[in-house]
Specification:
The chain is mainly α. It is built from nine helices and no strands. It is elongated.
Length: about 240
């Protein structure tokens, strides 16, 4: 009796301590990608215009236009992408649902064969497959996970992806414009704030993915800085060529 209680206590402690982050949700990837893209693309766009020796007002308008256009484009793209993926999954689930209804024994044998291939004894594999196949919806969920690699009850939301992408892109793209909106007339405050934002975003992403915060931050800083430097050089080159 004491052994059983000890085992139950250990199982309970393991369950309480053994938790995982949500890796299937539809918000993380578009949020991270949107913030990074907003920072890098708008910083590069503004430095390119500044390299062309254009005026302060033109740079501000360019930055605001880049923010609006990029945010709407990201939201539309994410919504279409996630919705299309969800529709594809639903179509495949319909195929699997029809197969389970028309050929239940064949699908049960297929599930048993899958368990056998993973090391389960054949008799046990067939018994497990038989019991799991009693409930059609449970059988569909298991086949979807095993054959398609998806959870039918945990598909990403297109609306969540679109809203997350829109907000994060707009926030990231706002940073290079913010110093100008607050009265700055030179480019360097916008560049410094944007680079700081890139480092901060990289560090935050590292907290989510358990990577080194300083490595992730410096990586984003280097990539964003390189993009801004290249576009500034191109803007200067084009200005010289046109003049």
């Amino acid at each position: 009796m004491a052994v059983i209680e000890t085992g139950a206590a250990l199982h309970e402690a393991h369950r309480d301590n053994h938790t995982h982050r949500d890796v299937n949700g539809g918000w993380l990837r578009p949020a991270v990608f949107g913030a990074m893209d907003g920072l890098v693309s708008n910083l590069a766009l503004m430095t390119g215009v500044a390299g062309g020796s254009l005026g302060h007002q033109t740079i501000v308008i360019t930055g605001l236009a880049g923010l609006a256009a990029g945010a709407f484009s990201m939201a539309a793209g994410e919504y279409t992408s996630v919705a299309s993926q969800a529709e594809l999954v639903q179509a495949e689930l319909d195929v699997e649902r029809r197969e389970l209804r028309r050929h239940p024994q064949a699908e049960q044998d297929e599930l048993a064969a899958l368990y056998v291939s993973r090391g389960v004894e054949p008799d046990l594999a067939h018994e497990v497959a038989r019991q799991l196949s009693k409930d059609p919806e449970q059988a569909l969920e298991i086949h979807a996970r095993e054959e398609l690699g998806v959870d039918p009850d945990d598909l990403p939301s297109p609306l969540t992806a679109a809203v997350s992408s829109f907000g994060s892109f707009a926030l990231g793209a706002l940073l290079p414009v913010l110093p100008y909106l607050l009265g700055a007339t030179a480019l360097w405050p916008a560049v410094l704030l944007a680079l700081a934002g890139l480092f901060g975003c990289g560090a935050v992403v590292a907290r989510v993915t358990a990577r080194s915060w300083w490595f992730s931050g410096l990586r984003q800083l280097a990539l964003g800085g390189a993009a801004a430097g290249v576009t500034f050089a191109l803007g200067t080159l084009f200005d010289t060529a046109v003049s």
